[in-house]
Amino acid sequence: MLSLRQSIRNLPRFIRQFSTESVTCEEIKIPAPWGHIAGKWWGPQEKRPILCSHGWEDNCGSFDTLIPRLPSHVGYLAIDLPGHGLSSQLPPGVFYHRIDNVVLLKRIVDYFNWSKVSLLGHSMGAIMNYQYTLLYPDTVDFLICIDGLKPLVHEDKRIERMVKIIQNFIKYDYLNSLKKEPPAYAFEMLEKMLHEGTMKSIALDSCKYILKRNTAPSTKEPGKYYFTRDGRLKVSLESDLLGWAQKDIVDSAHRITCPLFASKASHSPFFENKQNLLEVIEVIKKSNKNFEIHNVEGTHHVHLNHPERLDSLISTFIKKYDVSDRSEGGLKSEIKINQASSA
Question: Can you give the residue ranges of the AB hydrolase-1 domain (predicted)?
């Protein structure tokens, strides 16, 4: 199997082959204790950007169609979460707990020495941003949540799910240890697999934005590609080992005091009891005068498939609430990969 380092080295050629971006951005790698966090820095590099986090088993390519349509006076740092895209996987034997992503945000904030942070996220990325804001409310100047908000709560059959989670984690951790190249397919087949695997949430012609960072060329079958995301992620979404209680989430919702944008796609499931979300929304409505929520026509990945349905809403929000100083914490030269991706 190609190492992640080899995949990064082949990135310029591979991205050019499948890229449809019209706006140039900088590929970056932020150091982490287990390796690095990869990402793309869009727009101005001399000042603090908006930090963007993607959903489960996606990567920062999830924002390739949306970010170019957002206000250009501010930069956007879209990251690949650990085990996703071009970021390092966690060490062998380590579970992907949901709270780890919140710790990751704090690492990034500290790395750039930001006193404030602006957060934009989709799905799991929105949830982790919400959790970060709960913990550090005075440091977040605004929060944008696309089809995700509060931590998910699944209280039924909790013990049975814990047993299944542990069993599946050990299985996928073992498969990782074999270091064998996964099955490879023609790129068109990978597009179909991703489209159908997301219950057609990602449109077929949008799959390329995710696949160009979640796949690598096969070393055994020329012209074919395989998925590179960490197999252990398959059990991370259902992790109840370090979950939140609904009561705690409701009781703490008043801590979200910064301007908050939330959107819900019309053809996207709630992923938990709908009432859980409504309870939190009611608290925020009463305690946060700068909270706005929008219903948007589309699937869970509407921001990728149809960015035009969200861009004006988000742009208006950013222009209204982007009032904090951004002069600190611009792009560091040492994290550049010495090339920019463009069409």
Answer: 49-306
218 given a catalytic annotation: no
Q: Model confidence over 172-230: pLDDT tens digits?
A: 999 999 999 999 999 999 999 999 999 999 999 999 999 999 999 999 999 999 999 99
Catalytic residue, from 53, 62, 118, 123: name it.
123
- Could you report the per-residue pLDDT of 243-299, keeping only the tens digit for each? 788 999 999 999 999 999 999 999 999 999 999 999 999 999 999 999 999 999 999
Residue 264 lies in a domain: yes
Domain coverage including residue 275: 23-180+229-341
Q: Does 14 reside within a domain?
A: no
Number of domains in the chain: 1
Within-domain flag for 325:
yes
In a domain, 68, yes or no: yes
- CATH number of the domain bearing residue 162: 3.40.50.1820
Round to whole Å and give the CA distance between 269 and 123. Answer: 11
